Amino acid sequence: MARLENKVAIVTGSGSGIGAAIAKRFAEEGAKVVLADVSDKGVSLVKKEIEEAGGSVEYIVSDISKEENAKKINDFAVEKFGKLDILVNNAGYAGPSDPAEQFNSEEFDKIFKVNAYGTFYMVKHAVPYMQENKGGSIVNVGSNSTLTPTDYPGYASSKGAVRTMSFTLSGILAKDKIRVNTLIPGTTRTPMVQAIFDNPELAKKYIETIPLGEVVEPEDLANGALYLASDEAGRVTGTELVIDAGMSL
């Protein structure tokens, strides 16, 4: 039996990169997947790939930084598949790497609205459906920028909020058998950072800084998310799974 057989999962930010890899992995393991992203282009392609592989999938284009949209995504999943078992909050916005004294307040607001507010809104509207199911799994995607020095103060701050939120919610929701865990990626080979790897000299210098000497791939995060979402982690909550090839050591 597939590890997510008969499960319904929402994956936000699933139009590319880590989110797309998680959605595909979940579908491979039998989940009915709802893709959610701000862009139609990416999720429509991911949907096609999942369907061609025999998976069950729907998608919705929506911006989770607005609460009504987060509600819409959760409602959409239940309308399409009848219930909700798994929520992966992967959608994120990095923003600029400006120093604090030069940071644009509007950019700071946008980062928090997507990363922190959006995550909370998605959880808020997923919980009632999971309570109906007598349980569920929430995986919030953080960042190892909260574990190591970074040039992205706004992004790191927002992901710090996600880490604290996950830990707090895990205690609050435990009585409902809703597990909440955090997946913490290091720099991952996604379109967002592909420029590093397109330059052989830059890529070599970068890889030399990684203890394991290997770049984290989106599929590595997908495997981690699969474990946290599955019944194999049925007694795992309030924890963090760091997948960064040792970058935060």
TrEMBL record:
**S-adenosyl-L-methionine: is it a keyword of this entry?**
no
- MF (Gene Ontology): oxidoreductase activity
UniProt key word Electron transport: no
Annotated keywords:
Oxidoreductase
Q: Which Pfam families match?
A: adh_short_C2
Gene Ontology biological process terms in this record: bile acid metabolic process
Instruction: Note the Gene3D superfamilies from the entry.
Output: NAD(P)-binding Rossmann-like Domain
Similarity comment: family membership: Belongs to the short-chain dehydrogenases/reductases (SDR) family.
Q: What is this protein called?
A: NAD(P)-dependent dehydrogenase, short-chain alcohol dehydrogenase family
Taxonomy of the source species: Bacteria, Bacillati, Bacillota, Bacilli, Bacillales
